[in-house]
Design brief:
Elements: H1 4-12, H2 18-25, H3 28-41, E1 47-51, H4 57-63, E2 68-73, H5 76-87, E3 95-99, E4 113-116, H6 128-143, E5 149-151, E6 154-164, E7 167-168, E8 171-172, E9 177-179, E10 188-190, E11 195-201, E12 209-217, E13 222-238, E14 243-248, E15 251-262, E16 267-275, H7 280-284, E17 288-293
Length: 307
């Protein structure tokens, strides 16, 4: 019998098919960002823990410098896959693939770096935040301080109002859409710049729920019928170069149940709430967007862009 967490895991995506992990291997932006960040964060001879190892590729990146890597994976299919893949690669013998629940596992010794990539746009579906917060409490109880370095170090989340086309060869379907970053989509019109609604610093205690209400100045007339969620992962901070190593998730666009007609200069108010690791429908159900002030009644206000 599956317990409650295992049932939720199956529904939300922890037991995703093996081929999904293969697709992640082919995501060059993800792979290059993590390889660069791990190479920076892991010092020679370090001890490393990965929570949610998948194919084991991030643990393998760490093994290039680390003395020992513990790679924890809950899905038995992925445990077999990771062990098979690691035997095919040099330094794979330095990675111990552990079949365990990341909510319960602690390494047998203190570690220097913890890698955790259970990341979905807006911190939905997967348990990134909850797993790390649980790990920090249990690690401090067993080993005391200091805590290891976490990778990613931080996450910046933003939201943006859109006019989104939902015509599929004449078939109208307001569906959730995931879009690659850095591309122009003819059916997507940005109605205002993105606004940051949460910053997660994994080196600090974090809440497991998000509640936000914010305002946007509409930049073009049209119908606001969707909200785009943007998630920028700060994989590593490189202070000596005054820069960061980042990875930007695909954009997630959620349709609004009640679209809003807007004119240039109107002030739009948006609100929503959800919990980290929750389902996409749980966020959709809370989305609200309304015109707070019409352009003729309210002067334009400056809204900072999301970089």
């Amino acid at each position: 019998m599956l317990n409650e967490r295992e049932i939720e895991s199956c529904y939300l995506g922890q037991f995703i098919p093996v081929h999904y992990h293969h697709n992640m291997l082919m995501d060059q932006n993800r792979m290059h960002g993590f390889k660069s960040a791990i190479d920076y964060a892991v010092k020679p001879g370090a001890k490393v823990l990965e929570l949610g190892g998948g194919t084991g590729v991030l643990s393998w990146f760490a093994a290039a410098k680390a003395a020992k890597v513990y790679c924890v994976e809950f899905n038995p299919d992925m445990v077999k896959e990771a062990r098979k893949m690691l035997t095919l690669n040099p330094n794979g013998e330095k990675v111990e693939v552990v079949h365990a629940d990341a909510f319960e596992y602690l390494p047998p010794e203190p570690v220097d770096v913890v890698i955790c990539e259970m990341i979905h746009v807006a911190m939905l579906r997967e348990k990134q935040v909850e797993v790390i917060e649980s790990f920090k409490r249990r690690y401090l109880e067993r080993f005391g301080g200091p805590l290891p370095i976490f990778l990613p170090e931080a996450v910046i989340m933003a939201v943006q109002p859109l006019q989104q086309e939902y015509d599929f060869e004449g078939f109208y379907a307001p569906i959730v859409q995931f879009q690659e970053t850095g591309m122009i989509y003819s059916g997507t019109q940005e109605m205002a710049p993105p606004a940051v609604y949460s910053i997660i610093d994994f080196n600090q205690p974090n809440e497991l729920s998000y509640s936000w209400e914010g305002k946007f100045v509409v930049e073009r007339s049209g119908q606001i019928n969707a909200l785009r969620f943007v998630t920028k992962n700060i994989l590593a901070v490189v202070p000596e170069r005054s820069t960061t190593i980042d990875w930007l998730n695909h954009y997630m666009t959620l349709p609004l149940a009640n679209p809003v007609k807007a004119n240039e200069g109107d002030v739009l108010q948006v609100s929503f709430q959800y919990r980290a690791g929750g389902s996409i429908p749980s966020l959709q159900a809370s989305l609200r967007a309304d015109i707070l002030y019409e352009a003729a009644l309210q002067p334009q206000q400056y809204m900072p862009a999301f970089a």
